[in-house]
Amino acid sequence: xxxxxxxxxxxxxxxxxxxxxxxxxxxxxxxxxxxxxxxxxxxxxxxxxxxxxxxxxxxxxxxxxxxxxxxxxxxxxxxxxxxxxxxxxxxxxxxxxxxxxxxxxxxxxxxxxxxxxxxxxxxxxxxxxxxxxxxxxxxxxxxxxxxxxxx
Length: 151
What we know:
Layout: H1 6-13, E1 27-39, E2 42-58, E3 78-80, E4 86-88, E5 90-92, E6 101-107, E7 118-121
Antiparallel strand pairs: 1-2, 1-6, 2-5, 3-4, 6-7
């Protein structure tokens, strides 16, 4: 089977203009997550740390070989739901964790050919727990100091 050409790939994904590195990305996912916020010079736990993720790419369907040995062309993984909506799998700039809440997808006009601007509530089905934070002490333990110390 001959491999798909770059032209095929470009043609199949030409309908999407996500612009993840631009000044205003076409698709952004906002919500809140557990984390820390500064309060009185210290970090305190908060469940409302704002977070914004950017859609970087539309994912492709799994490549399938038919019985005749013909490879399915590289196509976006999108499903027509039959009610005027479509479901699309997207790659995001960061992981979505199980504790993330209040997720909203904001789509700018033109993110997909013919699409208008819209705001969509998103259901979080993630089962991945957020990793523990990696931290480091700012002062070396048992270090000898002479003179004044800054807090």
